[in-house]
């Protein structure tokens, strides 16, 4: 059984890897754990507030983690809906997306859309 702490450390490793990709691509530095939804405590893992692009790294999707429980999926859906209603491009990505380079490709594409 995987503990919540193990899932958090896995998510942290994935976020650190994505941050390395962002630096390697010489993209603007994102804000981390950004509260981008008015009057809500919800945070984005990575955000570029000026252009309203955010990334959520979904750790532990292959294990019983916070993002795979009914409560977690419901919370994530709410965050995505609220973000979209406020004009954000919200990119939910998995560890596989980060490792395979798809996440950084989607971030670059979103930035081109917002230019």
What does this structure look like?
A four-stranded mixed β-sheet has the order 1-2-3-4, sandwiched between helices. The chain has a single domain (4-114), classed as 3-Layer(aba) Sandwich (Endonuclease, Chain A), CATH 3.40.960.10. The model has no long low-confidence stretch (mean pLDDT 87). It is an alpha+beta fold and 115 residues long. It is built from four helices and four strands. The longest helix has 21 residues, at 4-24. It has helices spanning 4-24, 70-85, 95-100, 102-114; strands at residues 31-34, 44-48, 53-58, 89-94.
Domain tally: 1
Number of helices: 4
Give the overall form: globular
CATH topology: Endonuclease, Chain A
Return the CATH class.
Alpha Beta
Write out the strand line-up for the largest beta sheet, numbering strands in chain order: 1-2-3-4
Note the run of SSEs as H and E. Answer: HEEEHEHH
Number of distinct beta strands: 4
What's the overall average pLDDT, rounded? Answer: 87
Helical proportion?
40-55%
What portion of the residues fall into strands of 2 or more residues?
Answer: 15-25%
Q: Strand pairing plus helix content: what structural class?
A: alpha+beta
The termini sit apart by 45 Å
Full CATH superfamily name: VSR Endonuclease
Query: Which runs of at least 5 residues are low in confidence (pLDDT < 50)?
Result: none
The CATH architecture: 3-Layer(aba) Sandwich
Features:
115 residues, 4 helices, alpha+beta
Please render the helix and strand layout as text.
Layout: H1 4-24, E1 31-34, E2 44-48, E3 53-58, H2 70-85, E4 89-94, H3 95-100, H4 102-114
Parallel strand pairs: 3-4
Antiparallel strand pairs: 1-2, 2-3
């Amino acid at each position: 059984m995987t503990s919540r702490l193990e899932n958090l450390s896995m998510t942290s490793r994935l976020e650190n890897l994505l941050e390395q990709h962002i630096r390697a691509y010489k993209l603007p530095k994102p804000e981390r754990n950004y509260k981008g939804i008015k009057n809500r405590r919800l945070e984005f893992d990575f955000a570029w507030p000026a252009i309203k692009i955010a990334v959520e790294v979904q750790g532990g999707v292959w294990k019983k983690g916070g993002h795979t429980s009914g409560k977690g999926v419901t919370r994530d859906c709410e965050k995505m809906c609220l973000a979209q209603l406020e004009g954000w491009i919200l990119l939910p990505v998995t560890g596989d997306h980060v490792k395979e380079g798809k996440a950084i490709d989607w971030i670059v594409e979103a930035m081109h859309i917002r230019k």
